[in-house]
Write a structure and sequence with these properties.
Blueprint: E1 3-10, H1 16-22, H2 27-35, E2 42-48, E3 51-58, H3 61-72, E4 80-82, H4 84-95, H5 107-122, H6 127-146, H7 156-168, E5 175-179, H8 183-193, E6 199-204, H9 207-217, E7 220-223, H10 227-231, E8 236-239, H11 250-257, E9 264-268, E10 285-289, H12 294-358, H13 365-395, H14 399-408, H15 414-421
């Protein structure tokens, strides 16, 4: 049976190092790689700083995911494999912020939209994933509208700033250097600007980008080749670039520390990491990464448990509607074929009747419309009950009745072949 299967690797089971080892390639290349498997009819990939998730539509999805994990050399200890309904529930919880490291954070919803669009643009999605992701995005918006799950919610970026304050104290008179001006770097500088920090410096490989962000957030731009000089003065450095390599290296930081006596806090929220791990062994240097933000999340979770319950109630309601929608869609191709066939007969018989009547007298527009409306109404009324019965059968996964409908109404079997190939939606039996 063609259904959604997923392979999920997140902060809950994998460390930063383990997630880095999963895959550091181009998103479009990995989508093409998965889609090239003849058993895969649709696929989408979500990759953020603390999760890598792969969704496929296949009649052998579990086998495909296991083989792909084996190909990547992944340990099963860090992977969750989900079947159709588990994948859907996880996706709805994810879009609502309940699966995030920082419960209720808003950033994940935008990331889902963007990453799903990449797959859609590449042509690796179809009706099944389109339905799931559209519902997930809708549910994510509804949860944030009807609950306070994201009120004062922390992002990874603001959690990094909170971690800095917990470690070095009030940041107002501290010098903070932010490296990176992308989405995460922008969130960091925004979080810092709310702390009214006077000494905020922003560095980026493209100086113009650093200058623009610094002007917007009330900071000071730094040329990338001046980072080492600023390391000698900074109290806190937060790295959030998209570089595929280390931005700060051991020798670079060691040299900067030789000319200072005060401690230096480094926080790395990039994936892959920006800061060489061995830097944490340098005297007076404290290095934190995403794994250390789990403590912040635990505090955040305690405050949000009640709102999380409300969010889960919405998710459960929408989940039931989505599963029902999938099941009812199974009958749609039979019903559309049935109606198309009967409307062809209606059209032929209408024309024959008009021709016969025309032999006796002129048929005006009013008469033609009356006959057209009448034949339409007859077909719709005849097929009304079979349509309801077929949709009910699909909800109950009554394959025997659906198969009988194919033969009874002589519907083209090529539509069924499309469903098997994944071009039409699946039916899950778990809710029976």
């Amino acid at each position: 049976m063609t259904e959604i299967s997923s392979m999920v690797i997140t902060h809950s089971r994998a460390s930063v190092e383990e997630m880095e080892e999963v895959w550091d390639g181009d998103l479009e290349n990995i989508l093409r790689d998965i889609y090239s498997n003849e058993l895969v009819h649709e696929c989408a990939v979500l990759k953020t700083c603390n999760r890598i998730e792969m969704y496929v539509v296949s009649n052998k999805g579990s086998s495909v995911m296991f083989q792909f994990a084996k190909k990547l050399g992944l340990s099963s200890n860090i992977i969750d494999f989900y079947d159709h309904e588990e994948s859907i529930m996880h996706l709805l919880r994810l879009s609502s912020g309940l699966e995030s490291m920082i419960i209720g954070e808003d950033q994940i919803l935008g990331q889902i939209k963007d990453l799903y669009q990449v797959a859609k643009n590449l042509g690796t999605t179809g009706r099944t994933l389109d339905t799931a992701f559209s519902k997930a995005i809708q549910v994510g918006k509804r949860v944030r509208t009807e609950t306070d799950i994201n009120r004062g919610a922390l992002s990874i970026a603001s959690a990094a700033v909170d971690l800095a304050e917990d470690t070095v104290g009030d940041l107002k008179n501290k010098m903070v250097l932010v490296i990176g001006t992308g989405e995460m770097g922008t969130l960091v500088t925004r979080a810092l600007s709310h702390r009214e920090i006077e000494l905020m410096y922003i560095a980026n490989r493209t100086y113009a980008a650093a200058k623009k962000l610094a002007d917007d957030m009330g900071g000071h731009a730094v040329h990338f080749d001046q980072i080492e000089e600023n390391l000698k003065k900074a109290d806190v450095v937060i790295c959030a670039t998209g570089a595929p390599h280390f931005v700060l290296r051991h020798e670079q930081v060691k040299k900067a520390m030789e000319s200072r006596e005060k401690a230096l806090l480094l926080i790395d929220i990039a994936n892959p990491r920006d800061i060489e791990p061995s830097i944490g062994t340098i005297p007076l240097v404290t290095l934190y990464n995403i794994d250390n933000l789990r403590v912040i999340n635990e505090k955040n979770l305690e405050m949000r448990m009640e709102e999380a319950k409300k969010a889960q109630a919405i998710i459960d309601e929408e989940f039931g509607l989505l599963i029902r929608q999938y099941k009812r869609q199974r009958a749609d191709h039979i019903i559309s074929g049935m109606y198309a066939q009967y409307y062809r007969v209606r059209s032929q018989e209408k024309e024959r009747a008009l021709t016969k009547l025309g032999a006796y007298h002129t048929i005006g527009d009013i008469e033609q419309k009356i006959i057209d409306d009448m034949t339409n109404s007859i077909v719709n009324k005849i097929l009304s009950e079979p349509t309801k019965a077929l949709r009910d059968a699909a909800e109950l996964c009554d394959d025997q009745m659906l198969d009988m409908a194919f033969r009874l109404f002589n519907v083209d079997r090529c539509n069924e072949k499309k469903r098997i190939k994944g071009e039409l939606p699946p039916c899950s039996r778990k809710s029976e």
